Amino acid sequence: xxxxxxxxxxxxxxxxxxxxxxxxxxxxxxxxxxxxxxxxxxxxxxxxxxxxxxxxxxxxxxxxxxxxxxxxxxxxxxxxxxxxxxxxxxxxxxxxxxxxxxxxxxxxxxxxxxx
Length: 115
Known about the structure:
- The protein is of the alpha+beta class.
- The chain has one helix and four strands; from the N terminus they run αββββ.
- The chain has one domain (10-110).
- The chain has one helix spanning 10-59, and strands at 69-72, 75-85, 88-96, 102-110.
- A four-stranded antiparallel β-sheet has the order 1-2-3-4.
C-alpha cells in the first residue's frame, strides 16, 4: 500500500519563501521611497514658510541689512533687487535648504506716497 503525500515538497516551499522575500523587499523599497518623498515635500513646505515669514518681516519694516545673504533657520538665504519701476521695487529671494532644495520667490514692494 502506498501512502499519499501530504503538504508541500521542499523545492515548492523554497520557491514560495523566495517569492515572499522578494515581494517583501519590493514593498519595503516602495515604502522607503514614499517616506523620502513625503520628507522632501515637508522640507520644501518648511522652506516656503520660512521664506514667507522673512518677507513679511521685511514688509513690516523689520528689515535686517545683515540678511541680504546669510543663514536663516532652514538654509542659505540670498536676496537681490530685481528691478525698480517708479515707486516699486522687485525683490528676489532665494533659499537653498538641505539636500540642495531651492526655493525662489519674488515680491514687489511699493512705497505709499501721500497724494
